[in-house]
């Protein structure tokens, strides 16, 4: 599955670039705008599916490590609810969040915790006819934090409750509402929760009668001063031009990324193999080099090492761009002298931030 996800990411990368590029154009024709937005939404959906597959393969190989910290549930739930607000609003649902008066702390990986809650809220929004109601509540019960996501939607027939958390389970009743899901979400919820020492359960009085998914987490007894504040503060973009070289044998990917960067005021060139890349990096005194790893004549890591030997290459910002987002790839990239490692399709906002301010900590 990891290989499949990787292969799917390759065509996704140039498609994403082209869509981002279309966002920089002004269209007079409303139909063009609409077409662009359809592409954008569907691509985002496809990227989520691919990410989901990759997640599942990592989990099944036991490759997930939790980065736990003491989480203030009120804050963590508020962020997760905010992240889901767009789809809740789009379906005209009302989301009621009930937080406890006393703070509750758990010991959890903030990213994973957010993934759990967002999956549940997403499902509640999907499997509830428009204009429904969703409740996100948390309470303390003995030594556990009990988080409930409840809705007044299509419900779950009693006989299906036991298999609900199994991977690739999709119930007939919900199929037309599944919006291209794969039946991965709840299995991720269960695995991630259990990795934290917690448990999950599903409740419904039956078809048409709404559903409730309950997640239990062990409490952490140390309240903390470092309770999360996960705000992404990307550095401000500055107008400083940078000469950027993109080395990628997928010419659509290289060209589309170059066009995007040119549209943002960068001087961008492309090369489609390693040797040409090394030559151009030197001639062009590239200030930033974006490297695909699987190249026809050598690996991107070898290109990075070669570039590092030359004078202009020493101080260049080197960014590895691969379909693989595994830990090992990040380590390989670092060893080869890359400053950053990106997974395809590239997150343009983050790439621009890094190009504008190359001093950000690698891996930040
Ligand atoms: N809140 C809910 N109400 C009714 N059915 C649900 C709800 N959440 C999940 N389901 C059912 O459980 C199945 C599995 O959910 P999930 O693993 O998230 O997969 P997906 O949403 O991709 O189909 C869904 O396809 C749906 O049939
Ligand atoms: Mg789902």
Automatic annotation (TrEMBL):
It comes from the Bacteria. Its main location: membrane. The modification 4-aspartylphosphate is found at residue 292. It catalyses: ATP + protein L-histidine = ADP + protein N-phospho-L-histidine. It is found in: Cell inner membrane. Its EC number is 2.7.13.3. InterPro entries: CheY-like_superfamily (IPR011006), HATPase_C_sf (IPR036890), HATPase_dom (IPR003594), His_kinase_dom (IPR005467), HisK_dim/P_dom (IPR003661), HisK_dim/P_sf (IPR036097), Sig_transdc_His_kin-like_C (IPR004358), Sig_transdc_resp-reg_receiver (IPR001789). It is a multi-pass membrane protein. One of its GO terms (biological process) is methylation. This is histidine kinase. It comes from Caballeronia sordidicola (Burkholderia sordidicola).
């Amino acid at each position: 599955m990891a290989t499949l996800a990787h292969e799917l990411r390759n065509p996704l990368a140039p498609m994403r670039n082209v869509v981002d590029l279309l966002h920089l154009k002004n269209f007079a024709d409303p139909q063009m705008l609409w077409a662009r937005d359809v592409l954008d939404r569907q691509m985002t959906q496809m990227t989520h599916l691919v990410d989901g597959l990759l997640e599942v393969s990592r989990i099944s190989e036991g490759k997930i490590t939790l980065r736990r910290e003491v989480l203030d549930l009120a804050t963590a739930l508020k962020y997760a609810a905010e992240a889901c607000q767009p789809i809740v609003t789009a379906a005209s649902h009302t989301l009621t969040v009930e937080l406890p008066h006393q703070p509750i702390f758990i010991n959890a990986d903030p990213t994973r915790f957010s993934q759990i809650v967002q999956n549940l809220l997403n499902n509640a929004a999907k499997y509830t006819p428009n204009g429904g109601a969703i409740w996100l509540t948390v309470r303390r019960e003995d030594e556990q934090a009990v988080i409930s996501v409840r809705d007044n939607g299509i419900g779950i027939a009693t006989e299906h409750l036991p298999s609900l958390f199994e991977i690739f389970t999709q119930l007939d009743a919900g199929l037309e509402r599944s919006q291209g899901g794969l039946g991965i979400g709840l299995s991720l919820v269960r695995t991630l929760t259990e990795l934290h020492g917690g448990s999950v359960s599903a409740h419904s009085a039956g078809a048409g009668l709404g559903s409730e998914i309950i997640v239990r987490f062990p409490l952490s007894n140390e309240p903390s001063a470092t309770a999360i504040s996960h705000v992404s503060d990307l550095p401000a973009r500055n107008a400083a031009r940078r000469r950027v070289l993109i080395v990628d044998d997928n010419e659509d990917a290289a060209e589309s990324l170059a066009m995007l960067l040119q549209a943002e005021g960068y001087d961008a060139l492309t090369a489609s193999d390693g040797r040409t890349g090394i030559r151009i990096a030197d001639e062009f005194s590239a200030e930033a080099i974006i490297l695909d790893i699987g190249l026809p004549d050598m690996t991107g890591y070898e290109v990075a090492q070669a570039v590092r030997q030359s004078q202009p290459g020493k101080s260049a910002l080197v960014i590895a761009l691969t379909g693989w987002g595994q830990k090992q790839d990040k380590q390989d990239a670092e060893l080869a002298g890359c400053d950053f490692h990106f997974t395809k399709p590239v997150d343009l906002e983050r790439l621009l931030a890094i190009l504008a301010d190359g001093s950000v900590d690698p891996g930040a």
